[in-house]
From TrEMBL:
Name of the protein in its database record: Cell division protein FtsA
Cited Gene3D superfamilies: 3.30.1490.110, 3.30.420.40
Summary of subunit composition and partner proteins: Self-interacts. Interacts with FtsZ.
InterPro entries for this protein: ATPase_NBD (IPR043129), Cell_div_FtsA (IPR020823), FtsA/MreB (IPR050696), SHS2_FtsA (IPR003494)
CDD domains xrefs: ASKHA_NBD_FtsA
Topological relation to the membrane, as annotated: Peripheral membrane protein
Cited SMART domains: FtsA
NCBIfam families: ftsA
Signal peptide positions on this chain: none
Alphabetical GO biological process terms: cell division
Organism of origin: Fructilactobacillus hinvesii
Chain intervals with Low complexity compositional bias: 420-431
Length: 449
């Protein structure tokens, strides 16, 4: 879809599937259509029923097509962070003719060498992000094309994921009748849209609080340095409300969205509303304070576990603080609760595009922006494995249905202009800016020290 400057971001979430159709005109990105349908076949961010997921994706795309007037043929898809790994990689090739200018072919060859040398077993490449090229003894080259030399080297970050998860995403999208233009780890894309240039540079924690799971990522030096997942999200808050108040899940979700407050200290006891209790003929009155206490109890658990994981790698105290996205991030007073939990500056990101002014649309918009802003070199490298995947997509066979419980053991990665709300409970002190570590085998825990 790049030929017509139309880009479609597809966010396959646990509770909803969103498609953002955008058009690039004269350097300006305009959103021209949105699809947003209930999800199916997805549990805790992972596709567990390909047919159901494909049907839900198709409904979302149909809605986006109707609103945009564009026939969608390919999409940019966000991948969940489950068991994603980011590893330093390097590759080197000899150039047979030192007088011939380096072109796309040589870039693809050196990238393929880096992939072959560093690809872990039983994993699939999602992307290779180049950090530096070196020609003979000259380093710090971002684009070697047009240059000459006898040896070309590349260092970068190799992003891989479990074959089963990626396969099921590809199969579901193919069954929905479209091709994948690009697969992107959600946090990688969101970091470039949600965070300012300074936040990406000095270091910021990005938290996507979704319906099925909550993801914490650390962006530093404009790179995704760490990512981990807690397999609880907004669905668990809804289930708690349903269980405690003895109401249906649909009613629990409705009152959560209409009356829910994340931090109970801001709720008012005198604010009451009626609920339909299962087994009772008459509605029952409950107050805002009780509902907020139920919500806060679950959020305390989710945020507490994420805090423990971030503390273990010394990631707390990033100068950029914490930025929240995802559907749960739209809940009133969530920034205050998170700020109190982490003792850091917290703000909620809200897209500033018409029709997308809700934190749940952050990923879909970020996927579009990520594809638009890819450099020529990044696109050349991505096409190495994208072409192979496109050619084999028609022959994909579904993997056995997956039990999301198998992913409960989290595997963390080792390796200004926003319409946002901001809240702080402590002032930020000046922190020394940390630069990249030299060498490949650095410890992530030591990286943040």
């Amino acid at each position: 879809m790049k030929e017509s400057d139309i880009y479609v971001g597809l966010d396959i979430g646990t509770t909803s599937i969103k498609a953002i159709v955008a058009q690039r005109i004269d350097g300006q990105t305009n959103v021209i259509g949105v699809g947003n349908e209930p999800s199916a076949g997805v549990s805790r961010g992972i596709i567990v029923d390909i047919d159901k997921a494909a049907s839900a994706i198709r409904k979302t795309l149909d809605q986006a097509e109707a609103k945009s007037g564009v026939k969608i043929s390919s999409v940019i898809v966000g991948l969940p962070a489950d068991l994603v790994s980011i590893d330093r990689c390097s590759g080197m090739i000899s150039l047979s003719d030192s007088t011939q200018e380096i072109g796309n072919r040589e870039i693809m060859d050196v990238a393929q060498a880096a992939i072959s040398n560093n690809l872990p077993q039983e994993r699939e490449v999602i992307n290779l992000l180049p950090e530096e090229f070196k020609i003979d003894d000259f380093d710090d080259i971002s684009d070697p094309r047009g240059m000459v030399g006898s040896r070309l080297e590349l260092t970068g970050r190799l992003i891989t994921g479990p074959k089963t998860i990626i396969h099921n995403v590809r199969k579901a999208v193919a069954n929905a009748g479209v091709t994948i233009d690009q697969l992107v780890v959600g946090a990688e894309a969101e970091g470039k849209t949600v965070l300012s240039d300074s936040e990406q540079d000095f270091g910021t924690i990005l938290m996507d609080l979704g319906g099925g799971q909550s993801t914490a990522a650390v962006i530093h030096d404009h790179e995704l340095k760490y990512i981990d997942v807690d397999h609880e999200g907004g669905q668990y808050i809804t289930k708690d409300i349903s269980s405690v108040l003895n109401i249906s899940l649909a009613d629990a979700d409705s009152i959560k969205r209409e009356y829910g407050i994340a931090d109970a200290q801001y709720a008012v006891v005198d604010n009451e509303f009626s609920i339909e209790v299962v087994g009772q003929s008459q509605p029952r009155k409950i107050n805002e304070k009780l509902l907020a206490e139920i919500i806060e109890a679950r959020l305390d658990q989710i945020l507490g576990r994420l805090k423990d994981k971030l503390t273990a790698v010394n990631a707390l105290g990033m100068p950029g603080g914490i930025v929240l996205t995802g559907g749960v991030a739209s809940m009133p007073k969530i920034a205050e609760l998170a700020a109190n939990t982490f003792g850091m500056n917290v703000r909620v990101y809200v897209p500033d595009k018409m029709g997308l002014r809700h934190s749940s649309f952050a990923l879909g918009l970020a996927l579009v922006n990520y594809a638009i802003e890819m450099s020529d070199v990044e696109r050349v490298i991505y096409d190495i494995f994208a072409t192979n995947h496109t050619a084999s997509a028609a022959n994909l066979e579904p993997e056995p249905e997956q039990d999301p419980d198998q992913y409960q053991e989290d595997a963390p990665v080792t390796d200004e202009g926003n319409d946002s709300s901001f809240f702080s409970r402590r002032s930020q002190g000046q922190q020394q800016k940390k630069r990249k570590k030299n060498g490949f085998n650095f410890s992530l825990k030591n990286f943040f020290e």
